[in-house]
Amino acid sequence: MRRSLTAHLLSRLPGLRRLPMFKLLAIAEIAVLAGTHVSRLSRPERRRLVELLRAGRGRRRNLDPTEREELARLVAKVEPRRFVGTAAGRLSPVPLPRRVVEGRRRASAR
Predict the structure, then answer these.
(1) Which pTM value belongs to this model?
(2) Residues 85, 101: contact at Cβ < 8 Å?
(3) Which terminal residue of the chain has fewer beta carbons within 10 Å of its beta carbon, N or C?
(4) Residue 5 placed within a domain
(5) Given pLDDT bands bounded at 50, 70 and 90, which one contains residue 13?
(6) Which string of b and e fits 92-107 if b means at least 16 CB within 10 Å?
(7) Taking Cα atoms as reference points, which of 5, 27, 7 lies closest to residue 17?
(8) What residues make up the domain containing 76?
């Protein structure tokens, strides 16, 4: 007899039993969304992003100016603002305004 995926996960991860199902679904949805945004980077770009994050050890000032620019370019490509807005929109019980999810329109886009 085959066990369900939920039963299998509950047996493998002890703390998982105490989390309500809604929180598990929310965490899974955010993880999928994060994967979608990170997949906008090519494999070499993802590798370079990790290298820059390790070299900077969480602080931009630990990187030289060219590395800071490269880090900013890679992070911008992932679209963190849209990621946060979309995650908030997915978890919100009411629809969020488009400007909250996507941010202000730029002058060039008008």
Answers:
(1) 0.66
(2) yes
(3) N
(4) no
(5) low
(6) eeeeeeeeebeeeeee
(7) 7
(8) 20-109
- Take residue 86 and report the two structure tokens written for it: 């979309």
Question: What Å distances lie between residue 68 and 38, 59, 76, CA to CA?
Answer: 19, 10, 12
Question: Which two tokens mark 20?
Answer: 């309500």
Domain assignment of residue 15, yes or no: no
Structurally, the chain folds into a number of domains equal to 1
CA distances from 82 to 4, 31, 63, 88, 98 (A): 34, 15, 26, 10, 10
Question: CA angle 66-68-71, nearest 5°?
Answer: 110
Query: Is residue 90 included in any domain, yes or no?
Result: yes
Tokens representing 67 are 């590395």
Going by pLDDT thresholds of 50, 70 and 90, the confidence category of residue 18 is low
Residue 46 token pair:
């993802």
> pLDDT tens digits, residue range 27-81?
888 999 999 999 999 999 999 999 999 999 988 889 999 999 999 999 999 999 8
